[in-house]
Specification:
The chain has seven helices and eight strands, in the order αββββββαββααααα. It is of the alpha+beta class and about 190 residues long. The longest helix has 27 residues. Strand 4 and strand 5 form a beta hairpin. The protein is globular and about 55 Å long. The model has no long low-confidence stretch (mean pLDDT about 90). Strands 1-8-3-6 form a four-stranded antiparallel beta sheet.
């Protein structure tokens, strides 16, 4: 899905990280609904996604599951908090939404990679900066935009997202009800098809 995370993974300084996964990582095919990591368990791997896509979810204290993100082809997948902070359990569940092809590496190997040389250190810093910008932009959008604006932004970033993500998942990701998404779609259709 094009441009979902503003294609941070295409940043020129991340090519060294991609090369690391392709050359030193382990190839694996994951089946739809298979978990890379589950919330509150110890994450073991980070991966580069060659094909397919993953969903990030977090279950709150009341047992409600919330979709908090997606990762697509050409991006990196894993619990980033576990990568930067040793000995913590995963804050999210990461699950394959489709059959996927990944190149994965143990967290400790990725940590070592970031200290190998200046290019690797730069890629680690750029990854952190880009992920911060994705999260920060999303946070600001939730404070400053209404549901329709968030939905329109999503359709502008990823025109084909509805081919991959259900109405219920879109609603969870945008923190609204499925009925709200239906109302937004109807409103947009009326505005642009009259």
């Amino acid at each position: 899905m094009k441009n979902f995370n503003q294609h941070y993974a295409e940043h020129k300084n991340l090519s060294v990280l991609k090369d690391f996964f392709l050359k030193k990582g382990y190839y694996r095919e994951m089946k739809k609904k298979e978990y890379l990591v589950e919330q509150n368990s110890v994450a073991k791997y980070v991966a580069y996604v060659e094909e397919g896509f993953f969903r990030y979810t977090r279950t709150d204290n009341r047992g409600n599951e919330h979709i908090v993100g997606y990762v697509f082809k050409g991006e990196y997948v894993g619990d980033y908090a576990s990568l930067i902070k040793k000995d913590i359990t995963s804050l999210v569940t990461v699950q394959a939404v489709t059959d996927c092809k990944i190149y994965y590496a143990p967290l400790e190997e990725v940590r070592k990679f970031f200290y190998m040389n200046e290019d690797a250190q730069i890629s680690g810093r750029v990854l952190a900066e880009e992920l911060f910008m994705v999260a920060y932009t999303r946070l600001l959008d939730f404070y400053c935009k209404n549901s329709e604006e968030l939905y329109i932004d999503l359709t502008n970033r990823c025109p084909d997202f509805q081919d991959y993500i259900t109405l219920k998942e879109i609603a969870s990701f945008l923190q609204v009800t499925p009925e709200t998404i239906s109302h937004i779609r109807n409103s947009i259709n009326k505005k642009y098809h009259c």
